[in-house]
Specification:
The model has no long low-confidence stretch (mean pLDDT 92). The two termini are 16 Å apart. The protein is an alpha/beta fold. Strand 11, helix 15 and strand 12 form a beta-alpha-beta unit. The protein is globular, with a radius of gyration of 22 Å. It contains 17 helices and 15 strands. The longest helix is centred in the C-terminal third of the chain and has 26 residues. 45% of the residues lie in helices and 15% in strands. Strands 10-11-12-13-15-14 form a 6-stranded mixed β-sheet, with helices on both faces. It has a 5-stranded parallel β-sheet with strand order 2-1-4-6-7. It has a two-stranded parallel sheet with strand order 3-5.
Length: 442
């Protein structure tokens, strides 16, 4: 597939104006679980709602056969269909029916689908914002999240280009998003200081995460005043933050420390205690919701629910991080696995299925298992394969499997989950090995 040039915001606006797509009284959004797609879907849904029309959000794997899209059109024949961050696979044409669907981002080998697509895989949130803006004038609330999605779509540590940069510049000029440097722990704005360290999985702090005594010793060594131990990390004074940084830098690997500290962005319209005030916090919550198969909870919060939906999401995320850390510690203390020259397979009987993608990521990143070989985790219910190279795109993997008889679920940006038999599991593992090698040769 030929990669598309990154479009500018003006290019997207022009393409949107020339599009024949119209929303209906009823609208169905089929969205990928990726962070940028979830944010784009929330922005579009909010705009549809403000026009007085109805919307229904359904979640999908990131690559969908065209036959599935045609079946969706038949099932919701009276609705307008919008697909967000989804690749269409196959050469069969999409049936028109009462109207063609609209693709926000995504790729296809079929020219017909490309003609129905607004934006690219690298500008999903920006394209979603442009489309939503064409329906009704968007407010600053939507623009701040569009900027956050643009940052996540292109990578927060990467140079911003095209429509992503244009959206971010718009938000910055309005004072809606501000760059900051400091701790990038989940809960930096809301969790008590010791809990932010204790339950950190993004990044996982080896020898610190999950160990209350070590966390207490670090805070004591940094001379953090007792009254501040139960307040958020963001409440520390500059001098206190510097002392804590000095202690942590002596205890952490350089790579881990670079993920713990660094540039981030604040959404200024969010309350100081909001877990989605920091863009890295949004990313952590979105990826956790993806692994847990609970993207709807995140969408609810992005749509504006700061009550029950937010409380439920926070509670769910905290339980998830605790379970992940407990299982990682179990691996560290009693690793029992089978290794070959190309893979590592570990049995985790009794472990929750939804935490396996995160446990695998941490095991690879922290060197609990070989860091260059794909890792398979088996809890007797599912078989999750996590690969080490971020260059191996999850859509590429999913697209490859759709041409086989092995059914997979994309459970994170670098993992798939299988519920098939032993033969299918072994086939999938070897296929990931081949794909991972192929990326390494580029």
């Amino acid at each position: 597939m030929t990669a598309k040039k990154l479009p500018s915001l003006k290019t997207l606006e022009k393409a949107c104006t020339s599009s024949n797509f119209q929303i209906g009284n009823q609208n169905v959004l089929l969205t990928s679980p990726s962070p940028e797609a979830a944010i784009a879907s929330a922005i579009i849904s909010h705009a549809i709602s403000r026009t007085g029309a109805l919307f229904h959000i359904s979640f999908s794997q990131p690559v969908v056969p065209i036959e599935t899209i045609n079946a969706l059109k038949e099932k919701f024949e009276s609705s307008s269909i919008i697909l967000v961050g989804i690749d269409a696979l196959g050469k069969q044409r999409i049936k028109k029916g009462k109207g063609y669907p609209l693709f926000i981002g995504g790729t296809s080998e079929l020219e017909q689908v490309n003609s129905l697509t607004l934006g690219t895989d690298s500008t999903v949130t920006a394209a979603g914002y442009v489309f939503a803006q064409s329906l009704i004038d968007l407010n600053d609330y939507n623009l701040q999240f569009a900027a956050a999605g643009a940052l996540l779509n292109s990578g927060m540590n990467e140079s911003q280009k095209g429509a992503n940069k244009d959206i971010i510049d718009l938000a910055q000029n309005k004072g809606l998003i501000e760059e900051r440097k400091g701790f990038k722990l989940f809960g930096v704005t809301m969790l008590p200081l010791d809990e932010a360290l204790l339950y950190s999985t993004h990044p996982y702090l080896a020898t610190i995460s999950g160990d209350q005594k070590v966390c207490d010793a670090i805070l004591n060594e940094a001379e953090i005043p007792i009254p501040k131990l139960r307040t958020p990390l963001g409440n520390l004074s500059t001098a206190e933050a510097q002392r804590l940084t000095s202690v942590l830098i002596t205890r952490l690997d350089t790579t881990v420390f670079s993920r713990l500290m660094g540039p981030d962005n604040i959404l200024t319209l969010e309350r100081e205690t909001s877990p989605i005030r920091i863009v890295s916090g949004i990313e952590t919550m979105a990826k956790t919701a993806w692994a847990q198969n609970e993207p709807g909870a995140l969408i609810g919060v992005l749509l504006g629910d700061r009550g029950r939906a937010l409380r439920s999401l926070i509670d769910s995320q905290m339980e998830y991080h605790k379970a992940v850390i407990a299982t990682v510690q179990r691996l560290e203390s009693n690793l029992q696995g089978d290794s070959t020259t190309t893979t590592t397979t570990v049995k985790l009987t009794g472990c929750k299925s939804e935490i396996l993608p995160e446990v695998g990521r941490i095991a690879l990143e922290s060197g609990i298992v070989d860091t260059i070989r794909p890792l398979a985790l088996d809890n007797d219910e599912v078989f999750t394969i996590v690969w080490p190279s971020s260059e191996l795109n999850y859509k590429m993997v999913h697209r490859d499997f759709l041409s086989t008889n092995t059914m997979i679920i994309t459970s994170s940006p670098q993992s798939i989950t299988i519920t098939g038999n032993d033969e299918e599991k072994e086939f999938a593992l070897q296929k990931i090995v081949q794909l991972n090698k192929g990326v390494g040769k580029k």
